[in-house]
Amino acid sequence: MRKIIKSIMCIIFAISIILVGSMKINASTSYRLIEQKTKVGNYYIWSNPQKGIYISKSKLSSGTRILKAPSSNEYLGYGIITNGSKIYYTVRNGNYDTKDYMTIYRIDVSGRNKKYIKKVSHGDNLRAYYGEKLYINRHDCNNKYGCDGTYIHTYVYDLSSKKLSLLKKDYTINFINGQYFLGSANTGDYGPLPIHLYNAKINKLYKISSSGANEKFLNGKIYYADIKNIYSSNKKVYIKCCSYTGNNQKTLCTLNMGTYGGHIESINSTYVKYAKYNKNGNSTYYKCIYKTGKIVKITE
Predict the structure, then answer these.
(1) What is the dihedral of CA 108, 114, 119, 123, to 10 degrees?
(2) Which pairs from 33-39 meet CB under 8 Å and 24+ separation?
């Protein structure tokens, strides 16, 4: 009898270890910015500003609404931050004048335990989360001329100290890789624009390029297009990669965009795909292979 009881206790202990282990795995999921239907932890999670926040177990499912969108002149902000267990989201007041604001809330993925976090005047949206801090976009606003959404600045809200502070003016976070945030200026221009990397763990900014575009994290490096002579008849684009601190800059391909310019279609670890325009605005597509520097004409 003692042997049977001992065996049962061992099984219960083993099961408890498995359950605790699985709970730790779910809890350790890092927070991510969600701008479309994305699986985080056990659920696909997404937000519809007109309808609400949804979760589902299946990518193809229409989902279960866990939060209804406001029915007044307020609306859900674009983008949510979640680790698959808790969701940070914003509600905008619908005014685009000197009295505009957004309110940050947190809710469990079950739809319960809604909590007020912070009201931010002239807030635009959430961009990132790291180390008990939310990273927020705010736009220019003054009492005389109202608000200008073309100038965006990144602020940090510390959830522990409840302090809101400026990280960098004319800067928005575009891509997140753990503690590293890759972003560019947001001044209403199409580009090229200054690119900076922010290391949230050590609170340090690194300048990657003063005239860049198409930045991305790839294979432990930063890849981007460095654009020169944009207003001349000899427009050149240098496809580069570098370390997360902006060091070890390496030119992978040099693209001559000619008189009428062009655009970058895509950048990966082996080649860049781009288009050149002619005087009629039509595009011809090319591929430059890093290893050889060879440029070949391709179909769209």
Answers:
(1) 40
(2) 33/79, 33/80, 33/81, 33/126, 33/127, 33/128, 33/129, 33/176, 34/79, 34/80, 34/81, 34/82, 35/78, 35/79
Q: Is residue 2 part of a domain?
A: no
Residue 145: band (very low, low, confident or very high) from pLDDT cuts 50, 70, 90: low
In-domain check, residue 196: yes
Task: Give the residue from 247, 118, 134, 248 showing the smallest Cα distance to 181.
Answer: 134
Mean pLDDT lowest among 103-117, 134-148, 276-290: 134-148
Euclidean distance between CA atoms 147 and 291, whole angstroms: 48
Task: Say if residue 58 is in the same domain as residue 182.
Answer: no
Which pTM value belongs to this model? 0.84
In sequence order, the 6+-apart residues with CB closer than 8 A to the CB of 14 are none
Domain assignment present for residue 24? The answer is: no
For residue 248, what are the domain limits?
Answer: 174-300
End position of a domain, from candidates 135, 169, 203? 169
